[in-house]
Write a sequence for this structure.
DNA sequence: TTTATTAAGTCAACATGGCTGACCTTAAAA
DNA sequence: TTTTAAGGTCAGCCATGTTGACTTAATAAA
């Protein structure tokens, strides 16, 4: 934190601003995960299952290795939830024809339904937040969040299309 | 999700935009917590300890009940980490003179040092992200994140002061 | 003043989801 | 043919969330 100003309170104005960002992110993430967690509990699942379902749904034919790169957890941690999701028919695996070591994963119909139920609560939350602001705020939100992500992984989220949100 | 448009791909443009927001939040939080986690591991602590240290540091003389409202965990979950932090002299507790049932918590010198070490990595991350954008983007970031937080808790993060960030 | 109520602490028990390290199979690449 | 890569699996550990019941001490209410 080399370039932070300090004052007599051992408390810089910039530090205050940065801490507010930290807290906003903490509270937002806390609430963002709270609704899906309740739905997952009905199925005996946890947040880890949601993440797997989400990213398989979002990236059809994803491999285990790619999923590990996204989630940044160990193979064993992933295997625990993935095995259950395959056994209970939420996720389908089939060998990649061009490299039969790889297994391409997709959501089953059942998996898609659960994914939609879970993610719709989060999309509704974003939709409300977006509607309370404007296009410029949303763009700023995206740019700052992108800057918080480690540079190497910023490209994982598709950049905005040219089409603007319906407000404005 | 009443007002989402749909197209032939069962895929609306708005849905794409909302999902990008979800993913940005996921990746940002993932990376935001990764650096403190490494430091905490050296002390035998976890993310839960960081959260307690952070919010006690940020809210001197906070009570257990208030901390529970912030963290949204059970008393037992908090007690486990809090007991350790008090025993190992990171946090001080003293009875509130005006209501001796309440215990007011503050960071010790040792606690302040660890807090600074942990949080400085996150502040540095925000500082970098903020410096890559501009005042308007930061303000948009804050407004959208605030909108994602459950309305009741939005006031927990102090609103911006009139003083602007040093860029622009 | 007796009776709630509140703040905090505690115990036992359980589940989720991280982790490590070792090891195996199969398939592709060198 | 040997090495590497993708994936799976086992045993065990730890952190951190959960519930429910119960206790103590102090304040507030009847």
């Amino acid at each position: 934190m080399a370039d932070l100003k300090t004052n007599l309170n051992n408390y810089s104005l910039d530090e205050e601003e940065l801490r507010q960002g930290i807290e906003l992110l903490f509270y937002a993430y806390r609430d963002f995960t709270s609704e899906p967690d309740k739905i997952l509990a009905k199925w005996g699942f946890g947040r880890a299952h949601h993440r797997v379902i989400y990213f398989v749904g979002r990236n059809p034919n994803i491999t285990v290795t790619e999923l590990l790169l996204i989630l940044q957890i160990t193979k064993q941690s992933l295997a625990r939830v993935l095995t259950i999701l395959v056994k209970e028919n939420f996720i389908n695996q089939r060998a990649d024809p061009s490299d039969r070591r790889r297994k391409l994963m997709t959501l089953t119909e059942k998996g898609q339904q659960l994914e939609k139920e879970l993610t719709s609560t989060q999309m509704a939350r974003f939709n409300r937040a977006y509607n309370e602001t404007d296009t410029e705020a949303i763009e700023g939100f995206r740019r700052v969040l992108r800057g918080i992500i480690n540079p190497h992984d910023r490209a994982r989220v598709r950049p905005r299309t040219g089409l603007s949100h319906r407000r404005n």
